[in-house]
Amino acid sequence: MTAQEFKPVERENEATASLTKDAPFVYETPGFFADDSRVPQWMQHLVTDLFSFVTIHYNVWGVPFLVLFYYLYKIGYGYVPVALVALYLPSFLSGAQKTAKGNPWPAFRSGRIWGLSAKFLGIKVIREQALDSSKKYIFGFHPHGIIVLSRVSTYGGNWEKVFPGIATRALGASTMFYVPLGRELCLWLGGVDASRSTADKVLND
Q1: pLDDT digits (tens, 9 = 90+) for 105-145
Q2: What does the alpha-carbon distance between residue 196 and residue 174 come to, in Å, rounded to a whole number?
Q3: Domain edges within the chain
Q4: Taking each helix axis from N to C terminus, what angle separates 62-74 and 79-92, rounded to the nearest 10 degrees?
Q5: Are 117 and 49 in contact (CB under 8 A)?
Q6: Can you list the alpha helix ranges (DSSP code H) found in the chain?
């Protein structure tokens, strides 16, 4: 096995070792590209900026589809948009955001792709004290706490490394779950509606 193949394992061990020390400690979230990546710096910056721009503007993801639907209608394929909307409606009307579980996609939430956002924002997570995984906690996020994506510091496996054994749900503004396609992003990231009734369900789950 080469030194390059060992490197991610060493990082993982370092992160795990840090958790065993007395708090507080600072966890620097890893980027998507390795320090010795052969990808040119300009391309790394381009990919990072593009990913960040697209994810930040998830509330308008539906606009390109509206343009596409209009185009298909104009060229005589109007039945295609109707079929696609019909297929999407069950997901849109599922009400998953009102449940304690939501509809999380763990592999997506903890994927390395979020290292691009960590690099873009220069994220560091500061844990002031260790937490008992048998208890439940409420965390406040500032600013933009009502936006599920504002918890980007917890994605990419960061939360699991800093607070192992503690499951998490992100409460987001109700309106976010009525934005086509954007609602799926919120749900996949572990988001649920921020209403009191839903929050009670999460805490009692």
Answers
A1: 999 999 999 989 887 888 888 888 888 888 888 888 877 66
A2: 11
A3: 39-128+141-204
A4: 150
A5: no
A6: 3-19, 41-56, 62-74, 79-92, 106-109, 115-121, 158-162, 182-188, 196-204
How far is 32 from 35, CA to CA, in rounded Å? 9
Distance CA 168, CA 148 (A): 12
| Nearest-5° Cα angle at 151, 43 to 135 | 140
Count of CB atoms situated within 10 Å of the CB of 102: 23
Which two tokens mark 164? 């192992």
pTM: 0.80
Which DSSP state fits 19? H
Give the model confidence (pLDDT) of 59-91 as tens digits: 888 889 999 999 999 999 999 999 999 999 999
C-alpha 39: how far from chain center: 24
Say what the pLDDT of residue 9 is. 38
Residue with tokens 């996949």, as numbered in its chain? 188
The letter for the amino acid at 195 is S
- Kindly report the number of other CB atoms within 10 A of residue 75's CB atom: 9
The total number of residues written for the chain in this structure: 205
Q: Pull the structure tokens for residue 68.
A: 């596409």
